[in-house]
């Protein structure tokens, strides 16, 4: 789908996201895991779970990351529904 030049540029960009100035490697893995779960990327989730083990991330840390993704996702869906109700003037109190 991408041209060779685009693939190379993307590869350079992606690689640069692992060369952090401010995040330690464990934090980088946890942020990556959160992003992977949030974006529903199975290969990425697999990658970051395996990296987490190498970085000695404990099960509780993974659980807290997944819970945070779930909480943000649930909040976004609530806001999305509220916006539709408002935009289309739907009164839920009129429902049985």
Give a description of the structure:
72% of the residues lie in helices and 0% in strands. It is an all-alpha fold. It has one domain (24-94). Helix 2 (25-38) packs antiparallel against helix 3 and helix 2 (25-38) crosses helix 4. The termini are far apart. The mean pLDDT is 97.
Features:
mainly alpha, 4 helices, 96 residues
Indicate the structural class: mainly alpha
Quaternary state reads single chain
Q: Using the alpha-carbon principal axes, give the shape.
A: flat
Number of contiguous helices = 4
Number of strands: 0
Strand content: under 5%
* N- and C-termini, Cα separation: 49 Å
Topology as H/E string? HHHH
Total separate domains: 1
> Mean pLDDT, as a whole number?
97
Tell me the major beta sheet: none
Question: Outline of this structure?
Answer:
72% of the residues lie in helices and 0% in strands. With 96 residues, it is mainly α.
Topology at a glance:
Layout: H1 4-16, H2 25-38, H3 42-54, H4 59-87
Helix pairs in contact: 2-3, 2-4
């Amino acid at each position: 789908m991408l041209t060779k030049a685009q693939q190379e540029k993307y590869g350079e960009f992606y690689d640069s996201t692992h060369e952090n100035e401010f995040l330690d490697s464990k934090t980088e893995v946890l942020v990556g895991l959160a992003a992977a779960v949030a974006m529903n990327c199975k290969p990425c989730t697999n990658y970051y779970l395996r990296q987490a083990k190498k970085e000695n991330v404990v099960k509780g840390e993974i659980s807290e990351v997944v819970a945070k993704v779930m909480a943000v996702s649930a909040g976004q869906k609530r806001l999305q529904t509220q916006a539709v109700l408002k935009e289309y003037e739907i009164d839920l109190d009129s429902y049985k």
